[in-house]
Design goal:
The protein is of the alpha/beta class and about 280 residues long. The protein is about 40% helix and about 20% strand.
Length: about 280
């Protein structure tokens, strides 16, 4: 059984972190009093697999009895996999987020200003940060980066290998795929459309595939794109992206784009990535 205690400064991203952890298979409980944590752990141990991974969000809203929290974490670590995650952010980042959302800080009534409330909380949670097993500073993290950090520390999204490369061939005359992350325009390559015996075929047919790949510029372009994919895919994955959509376009979406999409999909698959292949406009006029 695994229990993850999630704490941190208000405005540091605990709610987003909890959502991502839920996607990763954790059972989430927000704002649980420290006095109830051991009882909950006993309940989880006696229950079904649903509670094998639990994440409990504990911060100043939970009563602030951090000495008790540390004692409980110490006891839990003797019997289960228990870790304490602390989320923090710079004072300026937290103030900016509160101004953008117009939410009240939990210590707003005790403090004379937002700045004072943030500093009060920083002081109150200093010992929690010192006891943390993991600390994530979200000051400059995008939502995707935060997700990537959590996946790196606590595992993959439940039921998924956390990263899929989706290749789409398309025709520019039918419009760009709106979901595309990377777009490669192959209209500069020799066009089989102008070959009478190839016009009615597609890049799925060997004569068209062989024709498109017979040109040096096609092969050189393919190698350049392969190098780019080999370099960028690990970084997209590290950033926390779950689906990367790579679109390859020619004029009609029948010949050149289909051929090169097949080439790139086969290459990325050989690198060990999960790959999907879709030829959007191949059957359209």
């Amino acid at each position: 059984m695994e229990i993850l205690i999630v704490s941190g400064l208000s405005g540091s991203g605990k709610s987003k972190a909890a959502s991502f952890l839920e996607d990763m298979g954790y059972y989430i409980i927000d704002n649980m009093p420290a006095e109830m944590i051991l009882k909950f752990a006993e309940f989880c141990a006696a229950g079904n697999a649903r509670y094998d991974r639990a994440a409990l969000v504990y911060d100043i809203r939970s009563g602030g009895n951090f000495k008790l929290l540390f004692d409980i974490v110490r006891q839990l670590k003797e019997t289960v996999n228990c870790r304490l995650l602390f989320l923090t952010a710079s004072e300026s980042a937290i103030i900016r987020r509160y101004k953008e959302t117009r939410r009240l800080h939990p210590l707003a009534q005790q403090a004379g200003s937002l700045e004072e409330a943030v500093r009060m909380e920083q002081e109150m949670l200093r010992t929690v940060e010192e006891h943390a097993d993991h600390i994530i500073d979200t000051s400059a993290l995008s939502t995707a980066k935060l997700r990537g950090e959590l996946i790196s520390l606590f595992g993959k999204v439940e039921g998924s290998d956390d990263f899929v490369v989706n290749f789409i061939s398309f025709g520019y005359k039918h419009g760009l795929p709106m979901e595309a992350d990377l777009v490669f325009d192959v209209r500069f390559l020799p066009n089989p459309f102008y070959m009478d015996d190839l016009r009615t075929l597609t890049g799925m047919d060997a004569p068209v595939y062989d024709y498109v790949m017979s040109f040096p510029q096609t092969r050189e372009f393919a190698e350049q794109v392969k190098s780019l994919l080999a370099y960028t895919l690990p970084h997209y994955r590290e950033e926390g992206k779950t689906v990367l959509v790579v679109a390859v376009g020619c004029t009609g979406g029948h010949h050149r784009s289909v051929t090169l999409t097949r080439v790139f999909a086969e290459y990325v698959r050989s690198l060990g990535y999960r790959v999907k292949e879709n030829h959007r406009d191949m059957t359209r006029d």
